[in-house]
Amino acid sequence: MEFTTDQIRTEAKRVIRHFQSYSSDARALHASSHRLGHRKRQSIGEYFYTHPEIPDIAFDQKKKAAIAALTARSAHPALNHEPAEQLTLQI
After folding, report:
1. Pick from 23, 83, 2, 11: which is nearest to 50 by CA?
2. In the chain, count of helices (H) and strands (E)?
């Protein structure tokens, strides 16, 4: 499904950025690697992005997280962003 740039920008505002530190073993492996560039060898961790509607999946780019949330919402219409106060339970 194709989404407009405005839809993606609006949804990207809800994406959360996290930082994951590398373990000491991973940092040692990166520092000793001859294949990596100097910035990657000196890095201590990396950023990843999540979205509140799909919290179990991490993305490497903010745009990918926004598109995945829009796709999930279109596949499941019950996922909309109405605040919890406005939702009513039908019994």
Report:
1. 11
2. 4, 3
Q: What is the pTM of this model?
A: 0.71
Quick: pLDDT tens for 58-88: 999 999 999 999 998 888 765 555 554 554 5
**Structure-block tokens of residue 34:** 């001859």
Q: What are phi and psi of 79, to 5 degrees?
A: -85, 95
Q: 6-19: b or e for each residue (b if 16 or more CB lie within 10 Å)?
A: eeeeebbeebeeee
In the 8-state DSSP scheme, what is residue 53?
A: T
Say which residues have a Cβ less than 8 Å from residue 65's Cβ, sequence separation at least 6: 12, 15, 49, 50, 51, 54, 59
Cα–Cα nearest to 43, from 22, 61, 60:
22
Sign of CA dihedral 38, 39, 45, 48: negative
